[in-house]
Request: fold
Amino acid sequence: MSVSIPIGPQHPALKEPTRLMLTLDGEKIVDIDMRLGYNHRGIEKGAELGSYIQNIYLTERICGICNVAHTTTYCQGVEELLGLEVPKRGLFIRTLLCELNRIHSHLLWLGVAGHEVGFDTLFMYSWRDREIVMDLIELISGNRVNIAINAIGGVRRDISDDMRPQILQSISQLEARAQYYLEVASTEVTFLRRTQGVGKLPKEKAIELCAVGPFARASGVEYDVRKDDPFAAYPYLDFKVITSDRCDVLGTAIVRVLEIMESCKMCRQIIEELPPGEIKAKAPRKVPPGEVVSKNEAPRGELIHYIRSNGTDRPERLKVRTPTLADIPSVLYSLRGGYIADVPIVFAAIDPCMACMDRVILLDSDSGKTKRMMTWEELREYGIGWYANKKG
Amino acid sequence: MARIGSMFPEMWRHLFKKRATVLYPFERLNVPKNFRGKPIWDADKCSLKCKGGCAIDCPAKAIVMEKIDEKASRPIFLLDRCTFCGQCAESCPFGAITLSEEFELAQYDRKSLASKQW
Reply:
């Protein structure tokens, strides 16, 4: 006999609201269904109301953890629409911040994974080491989280010569710590017992279900936007794509830790080969009509921004596809057949960010058809009416 | 080779390390050089007669232009809305706005966060 258990929208095991409907046979998951849309923030609509400059700061706030990835993708898209050439130094600094962002995101994930399997020591120490890279980001950009480094046409902050020794020293420190965590993750029984052979995703399935990022690379799919569709300063850099053929949660942990080490190498190379010159090109305010798809390898995977311009200083449409959304089908596959106790760690393996991903679509429940889009005035009226009815 | 308690030596080492946090507000850390804090407006540099590029570009609509007379206007910074991105400093063609190192801006009243700097 099978039992259905809902997890969420609000649940202690979930960091952000989403709803999983598990069908269980004993403790085994037979089927799983998911419902999204609890965290809709209206950012895509908001982007249509702001100018291109204002939207840099809006896209930055899509995700606090991968903020540089979002602004880089957005700025790249607008630069392509403008036909603007970014100075090489600007590209290098942008790439450096992207990589530091990746290091911080992966260290954060490692801590969360440790926490999910009940290995809180790993959580505390990896987050303590994350402070090294946070300090580095703060040194370069001035702030810790929403660092606002990107501008249309380049970057806003330069790297001075007296910063170099400190950056290089912190990077070597991080590299040593990543080496240590690799050792811990691959030898510690507490971690291995909860992650080895859990959340299996074979390579064929990962390709079929379009998994992206470290989750796909842990299943042996060698796909990385940095290598396959190089952008910013990645064509000048020498790095390799980390993959693992373990196809389980431990594989994603190992891929992420090895990626930290690869990122450290790239950071060092950027600092050593930093070209002189300008950091920013002057960008016009109005963007000629056109459309562009801009891609980036965010810490969580492939991130896509689609921008359509209509010749004014505001975009007509901004569509964001975050890596979490691309990973949802494959994580649901890898949850099937597992145990209910493994749901938090398997789900955490994709580093889910619900707030980045959730969209809203209006459906007519009788006919099952999509409803007409509302205009801004209609939406406002609807909102005011909804609250008035609620109160009364 | 799997083993248990692989992080014990690390924990032992950290027992004798200096504490990582400081006892704020008795001890303070210096803010970094590029830090973006409370925006400071320089009346001498501001042309007063421009359209207010700072207010147009502000993503949080945190700058309101107050009219002095027919032609001139000056900015009020609504710090309750400000996200401290620093776009106003970049948009100003005269360099009249700089972001200071001041970050302790808490107030009991939202209205007192509107910063009129004249």
